[in-house]
Design goal:
heterodimer, A: alpha/beta, Rossmann fold, 5 strands, B: alpha/beta, 17 helices, 20 strands, about 25% strand
């Protein structure tokens, strides 16, 4: 398991916070996003992510839905309620097919597994619309 | 707790005792995840809450993708009644205590009825000492019991070894594979289930579109039914007058008969006569074949004035046809017995015992399997005929013809052979063994015509007549 780290990217690079309890997912996305010039931080669940946001100051949050203790929908609701964080684009991804939390104020919902090219394109699109 | 897996509860002795801890083990590709998830989806469909916790295992997305191929998969349950989580981070960062705390919090938060932990071998790999692993197993067992959550641990291991994962669980189930030549079958074995009288030994299972189907080993089930031998004294006729005469009325209802004979001598036709007689009497009949397809068999019968087509179309006659290639003998036995029970079949004709024996994968199992099958048929009062091939013309009878399985398995044995009389090959039939006494033990000439099989005089009379004709001819030759 990779520790929660800020990767070696340029200071002005876009920062992505990846939140997922599956370590192979966070590791893979971290490598790929770094390759595309992003700075990446990773958290293994919702509560860990909350503790990191002020320090990491992510430009976008990409979170899994089903995670222990605090799921992605709960995390999203808190982020969007907090005035300091509410404008951070939030991408919710889930292996579940029907998420009941339709009131969750995510910016984008994607069905897992998500091809990386699609995820990259959607994130760039979200950032461009900021 | 019912497993929701066809045939599995019978092996388990009724199901899983609830709120216990089970280890399902088996090497890669053995079917652990499918089995556990099939149980999970079955219970989730009935409103239960199921948690699937992965350690080092395939990703949730891939797992769901694989599971979506099965009919038990219901995507609407995922995320609602079935939740997927990874516990690897906690295990690596905080060790066994952190994992146990995570499981505790998860069970408390979600009120889970079933917990599945995939990739459990990782727990051993990250455990600092053997004693700490044992303590973890004890705590986990106590936790799931206290929180009333039936828990399945999945581990890619084999064998009932003295490790704490095996000894400190309430049940141990192993999935494995057995190879014979290029063939492979899947097997399941229950080493232990505390509080349940499970079936011992290995049982075949198959993985199909509906997931896993377990076929409890026939010998293991049959043992429990051994006292139900329903053979009666009433007689069942063959539909061939001469044959009924030789046997003084037929064979006992519910008995088992072997038709032993050379290739092409007429065993199948004799069996078809037996079935046809039952159909005409309104009985439900079943033919199990390995070499001739239903259409070919019906055409063959039609060529000798045995019209099965109408009975086949109406369903009074059913034919189970499987070339003896990649089929499981346990699945076939299950199919036969299920058909017999559901339709109340009274006459069964198995055309090709050799085909049946070919698909018994384990060396030395054939005899016990056949004993169990015959026992089950007797319990269901099915009068059964089995054909068995003898060597080609001119070769001697196998030495075990009467002392082998036949004499023990079958109450009645009929021998069909070619016999040469004055340079001509004739068919003859003889009763080698009949459950009731008082049969005609002489060899009789058997004739096959467009009207089917008929039984003639005894061979000795026929042969005598031939000799007389021959002698007269010699005497009348000009000197």
């Amino acid at each position: 398991m990779k520790e929660d780290v800020i990767t070696n990217a340029t200071d002005d690079a876009t920062v992505i916070l990846i939140v997922d309890d599956e370590p192979d997912i966070t590791t893979t996305y971290a490598i790929l996003f770094e390759y595309h010039g992003f700075r990446v931080s990773a958290a293994c669940d919702g509560s860990s992510a909350l503790k990191m946001i002020d320090e990491v100051k992510p430009d976008v949050i990409v979170s899994d839905y089903m995670m222990p203790l605090m799921n992605g929908a709960e995390l999203c609701a808190i982020v969007k309620k907090e005035p300091r964080w509410k404008d951070i684009p939030f991408v919710l991804m889930s292996a579940a097919f029907n998420i009941k939390d339709i009131d969750t104020p995510y910016n984008l919902l994607l069905q897992k597994p998500v091809p990386f090219d699609l995820l990259l394109k959607e994130i760039r699109h979200l950032l461009a619309n900021q | 707790m019912k497993s929701g897996v066809a045939g599995f509860d019978e092996v388990l002795g009724g199901g899983f005792p609830r709120h216990s801890l089970y280890l399902i083990q088996g090497l890669a590709g053995s079917g652990k995840t499918t089995l556990a998830c099939q149980i999970g989806f079955d219970h989730a469909a009935r409103g239960k809450k199921v948690l699937i916790l992965t350690l080092i295992a395939e990703t949730h997305g891939k797992m769901l993708n694989h599971l979506s191929n099965f009919s038990f998969f219901d995507e609407s349950l995922v995320g609602q009644h079935i939740l997927f989580f990874s516990g690897y981070n906690e295990l690596v960062k905080g060790g066994l205590n952190a994992l146990l705390q995570l499981i505790t919090e998860m069970l408390a938060k979600h009120g889970a009825d079933i917990l599945i932990v995939d990739g459990f071998r990782t727990v051993r790999d990250t455990s600092p000492t053997t004693i700490s692993l044992s303590e973890f197993m004890l705590s986990l067992n106590s936790l799931v019991s206290s929180m009333e959550c039936t828990t399945f641990l999945l581990s890619p291991t084999e064998g009932n070894v003295a490790d704490s994962e095996n000894t400190l669980v309430d049940g141990l189930i192993e999935l494995s594979q057995h190879e014979k030549g290029m063939q492979l079958i899947r097997e399941i074995k229950v080493f232990k289930i505390r509080g349940s009288k499970h079936l011992l030994g290995r049982h075949v299972f198959e993985v199909g579109q509906d997931g896993i189907v377990v076929y409890p080993r026939l010998e293991a089930i049959s043992t429990t039914n051994a006292s139900l031998d329903n053979t009666s004294d009433s007689l069942v006729g063959f539909g061939i007058r001469g044959w009924d005469t030789i046997t003084k009325g037929g064979v006992n209802k519910g008995s088992t008969t072997e038709l032993l004979g050379n290739p092409g001598v007429g065993k199948t036709l004799m069996g078809l006569h037996f079935i046809y007689e039952g159909l005409k009497r309104g009985e439900q009949c079943l033919i199990v074949g390995f070499y001739e397809s239903p259409l070919r068999l019906i055409a063959k019968a039609h060529s000798v004035s045995i019209d099965l087509a109408g009975f086949y179309d109406s369903g009074q006659l059913q034919i189970i046809w499987n070339p003896p290639l990649e089929i499981s003998v346990d699945a076939l036995a299950h199919q036969i017995l299920e058909n017999v029970s559901e339709r109340k079949v009274s006459r069964l004709f198995v055309d090709g015992m050799d085909g049946l024996l070919d698909i018994v994968m384990h060396i030395g199992r054939a005899r016990s399997f056949l004993t169990a099958l015959v026992n089950e048929l007797r319990c269901r009062q099915v009068t059964s005929f089995f054909t068995r091939e003898l060597p080609y013309l001119g070769e001697p009878l196998p030495e075990n013809c009467e002392s082998g399985p036949s004499s023990i398995l079958y109450e009645n044995i009929m021998l069909l052979q070619y016999v040469e009389i004055s340079g001509v090959n004739h068919r003859q039939i003889a009763v080698l063994k009949l459950r009731q006494n008082g049969y005609d033990s002489a060899n009789h000439i058997m004739l096959i015509s467009d009207h089917g099989v008929s039984i003639g005089r005894s061979v000795s009379v026929e042969k005598l007549a031939q000799e007389i004709i021959k002698n007269n001819a010699i005497k009348n030759e000009p000197q």
